[in-house]
Write a structure and sequence with these properties.
The chain is mostly helical. The chain has 5 helices and no strands. The chain has a single domain, classed as Up-down Bundle (Four Helix Bundle (Hemerythrin (Met), subunit A)), CATH 1.20.120. The longest helix is centred in the middle third of the chain and has 34 residues. The radius of gyration is 16 Å and the shape is elongated. It starts with 7 loop residues before the first helix and ends with a helix.
Length: about 150
């Protein structure tokens, strides 16, 4: 383990904060900032897709084994699917399209809800287990570098 190791939950929380900041930045853009909006929303969508993939491939399977709360884990997977559907719709749109801003806003709200559930319910349960969050974090970091 190197001195820069960060645990799995720390990685996810860092991602959460970064995406929240990007959504806040989006809210500040004017309706005429279509190029900036498109670039920022592409960055948000890409970050969310990488984040959800890492959670689904590595974090959720490890966590599901140790916390014994299938309902919480199943809900998280369904929330991911819903977000990915909305991301796909947004990626096919142009910022000047009707409903573009509304879809980005709804995505922001969905992600905010999902983040709160993870940080208030799932993460505290995980911290009470014997799961090696440093090793899991290293695995997640390595996977993230592959994108």
């Amino acid at each position: 383990m190197n001195s820069k190791s960060i645990d799995a939950i720390g990685i996810l929380i860092t991602d959460h904060r970064a995406v929240k900041a990007m959504f806040a930045e989006f809210d500040e853009l004017s309706d005429r900032s279509t190029v900036s909006k498109k670039r920022l929303v592409d960055t948000i969508c890409n970050a969310l897709l990488i984040h959800t993939q890492i959670e689904e491939e590595i974090f959720y399977p490890a966590v599901k084994e140790v916390i014994g709360n299938d309902d919480l884990m199943d809900e998280a997977v369904v929330e991911h699917a819903s977000a990915k559907d909305l991301i796909e719709q947004i990626q096919e749109m142009d910022p000047s399209d009707d409903l573009y801003d509304a879809k980005v806003k709804v995505l922001s709200e969905q992600i905010e809800h999902h983040v709160l559930e993870e940080e208030r319910e799932m993460f505290p349960l995980v911290r009470k287990t014997r799961l090696d969050l440093i090793a899991l974090g290293e695995e997640m970091s390595e996977r993230k570098e592959q994108f």
